[in-house]
Design goal:
The longest helix is centred in the first third of the chain and has 18 residues. The protein is elongated, with a radius of gyration of 19 Å. By secondary structure, it is mainly alpha-helical. The mean pLDDT is 85. Helix 4 runs antiparallel to helix 8 and helix 6 packs across helix 7.
């Protein structure tokens, strides 16, 4: 699913597959490979303590990751990449918080009535 989405977005050529042979081929140094693998495995093992050591993984530019997070509506990935949430996402959260206590947030409602701001989404991805 992700490769197809990246192809449609026209950014599939920005990805970089890194594997052990990348060191032999001179694409990355041994130190870079060790650091990247260590960071990747730390992340994977935080979710699955029994995960085996990866043999390859893909590096994705932050901007591309932000675009994908926006497209999928994934707030957590967007924040993890150090990006801010679009106004409409924050307004939707404010609406839900107000509804949870039986209220209405009129500022959030007015933001949600506006059309999606493509310029804002691009600004967030490329900032």
């Amino acid at each position: 699913r992700l490769p197809k989405k990246l192809g449609i977005m026209g950014v599939s050529d920005t990805l970089r597959v890194v594997e052990a042979k990348s060191v032999r081929d001179g694409e990355v140094t041994e130190e870079e490979w060790t650091a990247l693998l260590s960071a990747y495995m730390h992340m994977v093992r935080s979710r699955d303590a029994l995960a085996t050591t990866a043999r390859r993984f893909t590096l994705v530019p932050v901007r591309v990751g932000a675009m994908i997070a926006q497209d999928e509506g994934n707030k957590h990935v967007l924040l993890a990449l150090g990006k801010r949430l679009p106004k409409k996402w924050a307004a939707a959260e404010a609406r839900e918080e107000a509804r949870a206590v039986g209220g209405v947030d009129f500022n959030a409602e007015s933001v949600l009535e506006e059309s999606e701001d493509c310029d804002e989404l691009a600004e967030i991805a490329f900032e």
